[in-house]
Amino acid sequence: MMTPKALGELVRMSQRLGDPTKEYLILGEGNTSAQCDEESFWVKASGMELATIGEEGFCLLRFPAVLDLLMSGEPLSDDAIKERLNGASVHACLLRPSVETVLHAQLLNLPEVRFVAHTHPQSVLSLLCSKGVEQAIAGRIFPDEIVSCGIAPVFVPYTDPGLPLAKAVHEGVHAFIDQYGERPKAILMQNHGLIALGENPKECESVTAMWVKTARVLIDTAAFGGPSFLSPEHVKRIHTRPDEEYRRKMIEGAS
Ligand SMILES: [Zn+2]
Predict the structure, then answer these.
(1) Which helix (H) or strand (E) holds 16?
(2) What is the domain count for the chain?
(3) Which one of 51, 98, 105, 159 is most buried, counting C-beta atoms within 10 A?
(4) What is the DSSP letter of 22?
(5) Partners of residue 186 on adjacent β-strands
């Protein structure tokens, strides 16, 4: 059987993100997903290692059955959620879909988002596990941060993984869209990690790489009095400059 193009791209993106020299995650940490078509998506199976994952490490699930969980007002036990996720599989999947499957499904439904990459890079975690994190990420610090990671990240306070986290991210993302009139590129989850959203794997990978650099620079600014934020006017200008938009497209390979 031919491998669908997006699945091949998802496997290669996952392996690159899991490359130990990048230090984005260790062991079975992190998870990735991609849209198959309007009806279904692939998500990493629980416990698989991104560095060595192959096509068989992903489950193909139906969007409507998974998104129903997000909309359901009724409290569901962990076992009930597991059962519902297994029932959402297009083919019988021997592996268990990631605990963050609902989170991936809703993000893959945002405009232009076809790939999602969730990692736990050490520098980003150092920031997200610090008391002053909200203050530290309240502004943008250099132009390339804005070009690759967007006008701002979505910050989500620590929430129990699984359905509660999926709901908290949903709220955060929609508040962002209301405020900025566009979808976010990066989500920072307190005491947890980073989610990069992309039209293609390159966008997810450039958002991840640039957030790792941004976090490192932010941490270093603590030695010299804390971050010096760009003015809101400068941030807006960089975000909307045609030459920076061109550069962004060259980096991400977007059309
Ligand atoms: Zn995680």
Answers:
(1) helix 5-18
(2) 1
(3) 105
(4) G
(5) 196
> Phi/psi of residue 251, each to 5°?
-70, -45
In residues, how long is the chain? 255
Q: What is the CATH number of the domain that holds 58?
A: 3.40.225.10
Pairing relationship of beta strands 58-62 and 115-119 according to DSSP bridges? unpaired
7 by Cβ neighbours in 10 Å (0-12 / 13-18 / 19+) ranks as middle
CA-to-CA distance for 79 and 209, rounded, in angstroms?
Answer: 36
Ligand 1 centre and the CA of 245: distance in Å?
30
pLDDT tens string 182-238: 999 999 999 999 999 999 999 999 999 999 999 999 999 999 999 999 999 999 988
98 CA distance to ligand 1 middle (Å): 10
Domain extent for 213:
5-252
34 Cα: distance to centroid of ligand 1 (angstroms): 17
Residue 169: count other Cβ atoms within 10 Å of its Cβ.
Answer: 22
Q: How far is the CA of 45 from the centre of ligand 1 (A)?
A: 13
Contacting residues for 23 by C-beta, under 8 A, at least 6 apart? 121, 122
Is there a contact between 86 and 93 (Cβ–Cβ < 8 Å)? yes
Burial category of 184 from C-beta neighbours within 10 Å (exposed 0-12, middle 13-18, buried 19 and up):
buried
H or E element in which residue 119 lies = strand 115-119
Amino acid residing at 69: L
Q: What is the pLDDT of residue 146?
A: 94
- For the entire predicted model, the pTM comes to 0.93
Say yes or no to pLDDT of 250 above 80. no
Q: Which residue has better confidence, 17 or 89?
A: 17
CA 192 – ligand 1 centroid, Å: 6
CB atoms < 10 A from the CB of 36, how many? 21
